[in-house]
Sequence to fold (215 residues):
Amino acid sequence: MLNGRFVDDDIRFIYDNLKPTQAKIKINLGLDVDRKDMPRYFNLSFSNTIKTSLDIEIDNFQVNTYSNQTFVKNGTSSLTVTINTDYFYWRNLYLNDKKLYRVEKQRIADEVIHVLDSKFRNVDNHIEVIDVATPVTFERYTNNYKGATLGWEKEEHSFINEKKIRKELPNLDNFFMVGHWTLVGGGLPSVMLQARNLAQLICAKDKKVFSALIS
Fold:
């Protein structure tokens, strides 16, 4: 947005050396049955691996189960499965072979459904809606760098250099930023905390007392 006019060596180091969070695929399933019998959130391991890119095979994935009426209508449920993959694999398919891109999305969804059905039964025959989001999907809808959903990857190298990540830019007065890319790990709750902490810093600069109202 600022055409690179306000960067320094630390900022260049961050974007040249830190890794974005592992690219993800999300398989979202809408079921016409209430699955309160399934855990709210769990990691599911299985023996037959699922290939999610040329170099990545997984033997487990995370599942979120929604059966509360706040999220879905009465008598139904929603399952969200999150699996690791490679951004460049899906980017290449999207740009060069849309047909294979769609085929691969369906294949992975079918294999995930098979795993869920074998573990919990009565999943496949109750599915009304299937939606698959790849790293390219996240990139298209949110413009997140390489489709990363949580900013920088949580690894030792990133934490060691986290002090190079700042909420201000050199030689740009009265500009502040928070978000997935201004800390290691990201996530909406941590971004909200960053915003609160930033408000405290701005108050300190202006010699004002920070106070928060709870409504």
About this structure: The beta strands are 24-31, 41-51, 57-66, 77-84, 127-133. The CA atoms of residues 196 and 215 lie 16 Å apart. The two ends are 35 Å apart (CA to CA). The chain is about 35% helix and 20% strand.
